[in-house]
Write a structure and sequence with these properties.
It contains two helices and two strands. By secondary structure, the protein is mainly alpha-helical. A two-stranded antiparallel sheet has the order 1-2. This is Helix-turn-helix domain-containing protein.
Length: 69
């Protein structure tokens, strides 16, 4: 998932991901639970669209136009 151990621990403390504790600071996750968490985050998160410089009334003629394709 490319997140830090600290982030995973925070998610566990917040109850975002169900875990089975195995020792003092070790947890086991099921693939099903992780897949579910990832899918719910994909549905919530929407990428921010870039604003063109023209929408704010400014332009920088020294930069080439960018295509937002």
């Amino acid at each position: 998932m490319r997140v830090s151990v600290r982030t995973i621990r925070d998610w566990v403390k917040k109850g975002l991901i169900p875990v089975v504790p195995v020792g003092a600071q070790e947890y086991r996750f099921t693939k099903k639970d992780l897949d579910h968490y990832i899918e719910t985050q994909r549905q919530i998160w929407q990428p921010r669209r870039r604003r063109s410089t023209g929408s704010r009334g400014r332009s920088n003629s020294s930069l080439p136009e960018q295509d937002d394709a």
